[in-house]
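hey can u check if this looks right to u? its 335 residues, i copy pasted from the old doc so theres a chance i mangled smth
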Amino acid sequence: MTPNVGHLEGRTVFVTGGAGFFGRAFAEAVLDYTKETKVIVYSRGEEKHARMAEQLRRHKDRLRFRLGDVRDLDRLKIAMWKADIVIAAAALKRVDDTAMHPYELIKTNAIGVQHTLEAALEVGAKKVLVISSDKGCLSSTPYGATKFLAECLAVAWNAVSFARGQTVACVRYGNVLGSTGSALHAFRRAIQAKEPVPLVDGEMTRFWMTADQAVELVCHVLRIMRGGEIFIPRLPAAPVARLMQALDGQATYRFIDKRPGGEKRDEVLLSEHEADRAVDLGHLWVLEPEWPLPAEREPWKGPQPPEGFRYASDTAEARLRVEDLREMIQGVPEE
């Protein structure tokens, strides 16, 4: 898939958490398909920086690394200097491992986003895009709650930033196949060890997308965002057990307890409480803010979902077959 990155040509894009799964995919795609765009990777993982630099050494002249943490506002301001576009992707995201450490989630996923917004405004970045999650919608976990709070912070920041020429938006999407700590890797490990695949619930469903699709979505949103919105793609869904079948049709499974922290059986991308603010663009929804828009900001126009509508992984009209998932996971590397 060739991402639509022409609008990023010649820009400097700063990505927090940029050495993570999404950041690596984004940097590679943008640098492969532009000539003058620069990407600055900001994270606290020096080993990941070294590995990423080696993997993308063909782009060494346009790929930069800045060591730091989104919890450190002063460091963010220094590292972000002269960035045109900022993507806030840094997050603690393992539902089970973070369940007993909610304050650590708050410091990275919420306060870290606020720091990113403040730094971006100070350095004069024109656009900030915050990466959210389906778990932030009707959240039932500490992780989901901090993602919801990050959305609130980003949307409200436009009241400060819009008049200064900066727009801020969010994009909310589901599970990316092959991302760090994903079910795909856990299932692969079990199958390779000839052990039963661990399943919580045979009927549990999730939204699924590839890394390429996530990058394409983010690039598209960066192009069309007006400020204050949450963009929600129409993603296909499937039972988690179907992913196991796509890996190995003969695989056996064993049931395990739900992970700590409040893991849900199904996920929701657009809730019935939000539908009256959503505009249907066909391939995605735009969720407008509840507070009044700035006079200069053109509102999104289009049909609205019906009253009571929700887009959930157990009822989504787009369903993935085993064959679809098998095609999606082709080329996804081992951990």
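The two ends are 22 Å apart (CA to CA).
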